[in-house]
Design brief:
34% of the residues lie in helices and 17% in strands. It has one domain: TIM Barrel. Helix 6 links the parallel strand 7 and strand 8. The chain is built from eleven helices and 13 strands. Helix 6 runs parallel beside helix 8. The radius of gyration is 19 Å and the shape is globular. It has 352 residues and is of the alpha/beta class. The structure holds N-carbamoyl-L-aspartate and zinc ion (ZN). The site of N-carbamoyl-L-aspartate has 11 residues, from loops.
């Protein structure tokens, strides 16, 4: 029988895929993340996107200003650049020197603010070559966008049409397959031959470990369960949870917490994104506990991410306790509000 402790200690975790937006609302979402995580990979899909080191430096300064305003001095934002068809090769060495953590590939039109994304990965080959040479990771939103491909198949088709050819062409490029949602992606990352090198990993969100696509349609349409890549069938959720809780260092935590106001979600054409930052760690603990693998949470949440990015592991410890916590129906978001994942429900695990 799996053991079910009521309290677990872990080295402080990091979030390897996070959207914090900009301006007034940034403060509200940063507060939630900084409570649980020491560092986070900050996604560059602002409008306009963060495409250059200069834009990332200015964005970093705005984040630091908000952290200071919150009185937070223990949280490190890790900056990324948004790859476009026109990214200059010179930007790669500049980024490396500036401490940019990674470049992000959004296929054009794949998700929120991805209109300036890459129309054909071949346009980026010179940049990818330079990234491979300096060890700059490429983070991929792994979905094709051709309208003829069914939305539930976009990730699996991306593996065959884009990811596998890309990895063949750039075998030393460090690639993170972001927010994977399918059995195909889980097994591709698990089984890929990397010649013993640390060149392939995947992040997994709490919603994809806890829910399947029925959650989008449970008794009516549930806009707060709509994110991209969209939730899949139960067999995919099971496969994701299996690899996440297996202790395999290729899989680590990335919430993809993607804040959109209540109004932008509850409308005729609602935005994609789940807001999990409020209690992401508690949600991951629930998922791991459901398969009796709480002992594997620390590797997934706190070790494998920094190991992949060649960053030091954190040293402080945090404690998660099994103490029911009611999630509010709404939280403040600038002059609006946001509906967190599990709004109005009670969750079992929270930070001590
Ligand atoms: C993200 C967002 O809103 O920025 N949305 C989402 O559903 N995950 C973009 C993304 O990561 O796809
Ligand atoms: Zn995202």
């Amino acid at each position: 029988m799996p053991t079910s402790p009521t309290q677990i200690q872990l080295i402080e975790p990091d979030d390897w895929h996070l959207h914090i937006r900009d301006g007034e609302i940034m403060k509200d979402v940063l507060r939630d993340t900084a409570r649980q995580f020491a560092r986070a990979i900050i996604m560059p899909n602002l409008n306009p996107p963060i495409t250059t080191v200069d834009l990332a430096t200015a964005y970093h300064a705005r984040i630091q200003a908000q952290l200071s305003a919150l009185g937070v001095d223990h949280f490190t934002p890790l900056m990324t650049l948004y790859l476009t068809d026109n990214t200059c090769v010179q930007e790669v060495s500049k980024a490396k020197a500036a401490g940019i953590a990674a470049f992000k590939l959004y296929p054009a039109g794949a998700t929120t603010n991805s209109d300036s994304g890459v129309s054909d990965i071949k346009h980026c080959y010179a940049v990818l070559e330079a990234m491979q040479a300096v060890g700059m990771p490429l983070l991929v939103h792994g979905e094709v966008t051709h309208p003829e491909v069914d939305i539930f198949d976009r990730e699996a088709v991306f593996i065959d049409q884009v990811l596998e050819p890309l990895r063949k062409y750039f075998p030393e490029l460090k690639v993170v397959f972001e927010h994977i949602t399918t059995l195909q992606a889980a097994h591709y990352v698990r089984d890929a031959a990397t010649g013993g090198k640390n060149t392939l990993a995947a992040t997994i969100t709490p919603q994809h470990l806890l829910m399947n696509r029925n959650a989008i349609f449970a008794g009516g349409i549930r806009p707060h369960h709509y994110c991209l890549p969209v939730l899949k069938r139960e067999k995919h959720r099971v496969a994701l949870l299996e690899v996440a809780s297996s202790g395999n260092p290729r899989f680590f935590l990335g919430t993809d917490s993607a804040p959109h106001s209540k109004g932008a979600k509850e409308t005729a054409c609602g935005c994609a994104g789940c807001y999990s930052a409020f209690n992401a760690l508690g949600l991951y603990a629930e998922a791991f506990e459901s398969v009796g693998k709480l002992d594997k949470l620390e590797g997934f949440a706190s070790f494998f991410g920094p190991d992949f990015y060649s960053l030091p592991r954190n040293s402080k410890k945090i404690t998660l306790v099994k103490r029911p916590q009611k999630i509010p129906m709404e939280l403040p978001l600038g002059d609006s509000t946001i509906v967190p994942l599990r709004a109005g429900q009670t969750i079992a695990w929270s930070l001590d």
